[in-house]
């Protein structure tokens, strides 16, 4: 195994598990191998700053790191995100170094909080809830109320993102015009940190991280210029989508869950568990969504002093 491959594997916080004297050749090392077989103690004890050759990672390799992190965000268990905290923190400045990967840095920066909160929950939740060896057990996920409290504590002293001063005042009238509460513009803080260039590894773009097909269904063009990068157009489309989802689910937490995980996912879970509320299906949602909904809720409370339940649809002028 070359030193470069060795370094890459450890940057990801993983390290391949080698059996006996047998070594794994560089040609057989895949990102799935690297992130799929790790010893959590590597993340805790390995000094990432001791590897100066981290700068050898090129743009393609950094994008592969982001794709694997995105894959983990879509996993089942919130607490399994905790070991990735050092991985993401180490990757972020490297992503910021290249023009091609800067949009991924904007995406990842807003999700470091997910990993920090998962880390805290892993410490504070009773040990019986940490038994992740039984994948079928939803008790491995924190209860929704526990996550809401964790996020409120996390965001108590959170500074405003730089772009908030620029965009919030411009976006609030747009959201009102589309028939959704103005306070929901703060989704942009959670989605992109108010960075118009933010891009996820699976192709969501802009302040409100709209996927290509969703954007097109809401009237945005992707060619010759991607209108998702235009704040007002992205805002109009996101607000329309939120209004459509709220019309379907009639509840802001379910609306946010559907915005993040897709209305199909939320609808299927509501049907499967004969449920009517977010709290009834929360532990079955993807890990990122379980983090996303209470983070949005805590962000709106922090920025506007309003709880999600108090948000009312504005009355549109006719």
Question: Tell me about the biggest sheet?
Answer: none
Structural class: mainly alpha
**How many structural domains does the protein architecture include?**
2
Helix content: 40-55%
Which architecture of the largest domain would the CATH scheme give at its second level? Orthogonal Bundle
Strand content: under 5%
Give the integer mean of the pLDDT values.
83
Annotated CATH topology of the largest domain: Lysozyme
Short description:
By secondary structure, the protein is mainly α.
Structure write-up:
The protein is an all-alpha fold and 318 residues long. The chain folds into two domains: 3-130, no CATH class; 161-310, Lysozyme, CATH 1.10.530. It is built from 16 helices and no strands. The N and C termini lie far apart (68 Å).
